[in-house]
Specification:
It is built from two helices and nine strands; from the N terminus they run αββββββαβββ. With 180 residues, the protein is mainly beta. The strands form two sheets. Strands 1, 3, 4, 5, 6, 8 and 9 form a seven-stranded antiparallel β-sheet that branches. It comes from Chryseobacterium lacus.
Length: 180
């Protein structure tokens, strides 16, 4: 009985771990305050495949670059902030050319890391397992009053003519365009 429970738990945990190992990954654009400088951002790619293969990185359906990876040979790819960051209000709440789509013929892990002098983020893609039509976002309440304190949610559509509806949020939330 104990052995069977262990196998069930291990299988469940392994399926969670493998959910991020995929052939396609998407990274939604992010928002930053105007005037924020010192961006450094990279895409990190790795795989457990022994045979090397090429991964293609796209922005706005245009090839940005390709890189070869294999087990023991991960890659770190510089990503200009302009491919991922919306800095001006005019770049938010609209379809834009920002965001990344990363594709390969074999499964791989992908994460995007960026930093500014006093802050850093790591975003991990779930790959094809992350596709769907209903999503939920949760975050800690922002109680700070400084102008640079915010929370962001990035949305990326993987198909043309996708309609995105944001609903069910606290009516006290104020979006960066001033609406609630």
């Amino acid at each position: 009985m104990m052995k069977r429970n262990f196998i069930l738990i291990f299988t469940f945990l392994w399926s969670l771990f493998s959910a991020q190992l995929d052939t396609d990954h998407w990274f939604a654009p992010m928002a930053a305050k105007a005037g924020t400088g010192g961006f450094t951002s990279y895409l990190y790619l790795s795989t457990n495949e022994v045979t090397p293969f090429t991964v293609s990185i796209y922005n706005d359906n245009s090839l940005y670059t390709t890189i070869q990876i294999s087990k023991g040979n991960p890659a770190q790819v510089y990503i200009p902030a302009g491919l991922m960051m919306g800095i001006y209000q005019s770049e938010l709440f609209i379809p834009s050319q920002k965001g990344l789509n990363v594709k390969g013929p074999k499964k791989f892990f992908a994460n995007y890391r960026f930093s500014i002098p006093n802050h850093a983020e790591i975003i991990i893609s779930k790959g094809l397992a992350g596709l769907g039509t209903t999503f939920y976002a949760a975050m800690a309440a922002n109680t700070g009053t400084a102008a640079y304190v915010n929370s962001t949610i990035g949305v990326i559509a993987t198909e043309d003519n996708t309609v995105v509806t944001v609903s069910g949020y606290n009516p006290n939330v104020i979006f960066s365009d001033g609406t609630s």
